Amino acid sequence: MRRATMLLAAAYVSVAGCGGSSDSSTGINTGGTSSFSASLGGAAWTAAAPVSLINASGVNISSYDASQTTNVTLTFLASAPGTYSLTFGQNTGGIGTVSKSNGQGWSTVHPGGTGTVVVTTLTAHRAIGTFFFDAIGSSATDVLHVTNGTFDITF
Question: Which of the pair, 87 or 39, is modelled with greater confidence?
Fold first, then answer.
């Protein structure tokens, strides 16, 4: 069930495709000059080519690293700059997930998951902000601390 939840979050953004283009009519970016990075359990992680989507429902940013072994997805409801929750049970629609190619995965949609996104810029063509979250894996004691997260996405 946990893996299915994380795959669903990743699938949400996969419809955007890949490449390096932007379509301002839909708010989809598939790479370009955007950046997305964080520290996963203390190890630096950087997106190879972030795929992002912004629409009336919010923002979704997702990408694998260059080795295609780790995917990070950040989804949150936002219509303006501000602070948004990724905490389980807050009914905010915010989710942070990390999945590995070996099948491991963590998400804030599980009890104990918590986190925050701070959006400093949000326009029809750009989203800039920071984030951190504690995502829960296969058990309540399997916690991945995601810190120092940043994104600068151009749509």
Answer: 39
